[in-house]
């Protein structure tokens, strides 16, 4: 109904103020004003320029509220309010499809939140993996015990929660490739201070992709490769003496970045 339709011969005693309309419909005054700005409802103006609603506006506002609850925007609602049923069906079905898509996205987000929460709490990080092993669970538990209180653990959990198993395999393959190149470099007799090795060491640091590893943190990890029997055995299998050789290269790279390896910290 237009302003002209309402204003011709209206009786102010039969009209509702914005406060009365808000109380009657449960729609806040702020929202009533907003809907007016959007062109969804057109109250008339009384002699003092106050908004005056007709009783038939109640039904219109109820329809607006219904469509708002269903997620329609102002443009869509304006069209639906003046639309015959058959013409409205396409819009209604389209909105149903859009809502279903949002539901799927929200379910996916909820699943990732559950996984992130579980990882952050130190629960197994391989529950959904088809290649899960008890050894991996053991490594995960030990890592949580060592790093669980750190900022990097949350960063690790975030990335692992977002990555598919295929993406995780890709990250693992990238790290293995760099380790293989480092083993070949040592086998060829390259010094840990050479430019080529330092380039590979930087690639190794970046391949540790579960969280951002600074050169200082890389030194801490390099020492762990030497001190921890399992890490040392892993690198020894690639090339004898590789763990110690890598630590020398990592410390050289740290110095090149202005870091004294003797005072390196987990940042």
TrEMBL record:
Domain of life: Bacteria
Coiled-coil residue spans: 89-119
Example of a GO MF term: DNA-binding transcription factor activity
Entry keyword set: Coiled coil, DNA-binding, Repressor, Transcription, Transcription regulation
Stretches assigned to the HTH merR-type domain: 15-83
InterPro entries in UniProt: DNA-bd_dom_put_sf, MerR-type_HTH_dom, MerR_fam, TipA-like_antibiotic-bd, TipAS_dom
PANTHER family on file: MERR-FAMILY TRANSCRIPTIONAL REGULATOR, REDOX-CYCLING DRUG-SENSING TRANSCRIPTIONAL ACTIVATOR SOXR
Protein name: MerR family transcriptional regulator
Species of provenance: Bifidobacterium asteroides
